[in-house]
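Researcher: I've been going back and forth with a colleague about how 2-oxoisovalerate dehydrogenase E1 component beta subunit might be arranged in three dimensions. Neither of us has a model we trust, so I'd like an independent prediction. The organism is Deinococcus reticulitermitis, in case that matters for your notes. Sequence below.
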Amino acid sequence: MTATERRPAGVGEPTGGTRTINLIQAVTEALAEELGRDPRVVLFGEDVGARGGVFMATAGLQERFGKHRVFDAPLSEASIVGAAVGMAARGLRPVAEIQFADYMGPGFDQLLSQAAKLRYRSGGEYSAPLVIRTPSGGGVKGGHHHSQSPEAYYAHMAGLKVVMPSTPYDAKGLLKAAIRSDDPVIYFEPKRLYRASKGEVPDHDYEVRLGEAAIRREGTDLSLIGYGGVMPDVLKAADALAAEGVSVEVIDLRSLVPWDRPLVLGSVEKTGRAVLVSEAPRTANFMGEVAYVIQEQAFDFLTAPVGQVAGFDIPYPYVQDKVYLPGPNRIVAACVRALNY
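Model: Here is an independent structure prediction for 2-oxoisovalerate dehydrogenase E1 component beta subunit. You can compare it with whatever you and your colleague have in mind.
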């Protein structure tokens, strides 16, 4: 089966028992299972120990695995990321939590100049198999210091992998794959889906391979592509269009670096139209890269310009967050423009 022929997400998965959990429970389970599976895995960050993290994603893990495996870090993101790089270079598998994606700035140089470059500057002698977990995005009335979507910064750093799940199944499987990866991974967690996104998760061990998108809904008239926190609204928009007789194919990227070019291009070649959705500001948005590749490699199949629905080029607003976020109405309007072109 080729990438462009891949089944919709959830079809053809291993059989066995499943449980319904939410996204943050999936994160906690993945961390617990990897701590139990591999003694090299350590988990640290601000308040992740006894308190269990600001969103309680690590609740109970210090008690279960001990203070030498799950521990608090100083209020210094630069130190957290720098320590993770050092641990990874010396053979551990650190998972570092940054309380909010907005706070990753102080660790920017450690990611850009150290984590992303270590394999290359050492000629392959060293690597940095670390994971930076961080809650990202808006929708929880966090204001402009707790609601930003900075994934494009890190997608631009050659040497890093970047992922953002939208379902419990993907949250657990992607985090396991990230921890087992030999490269540094930035793992963004859409905080507005922590408890809102619920779904079936298998009892058995599994991974979701980095770099593979998921088809959430098959269609023939238009490709609607998103990731992370916007996916519930993307699916609502697809439902609204279906009620009007429009067949929409919905793709969840899941992984931004690497991203699933074959699946996306195969979908666009089939439908001839694409609308891309994210909540980050429009300028230099990661979806701009997806749009470029579509027009570069699937131009002859397009019957309309590639559309994009995104946040606005302003700091995330506290009061007007429902206006800022790409809701179903804005998504449907962009799809109608593409369909009527």
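Researcher: What would you highlight for our discussion?
Model: I'd start with this: The first strand starts at residue 18 and ends at 22. After that, consider the following. Confidence is low (pLDDT under 50) at residues 1-14.
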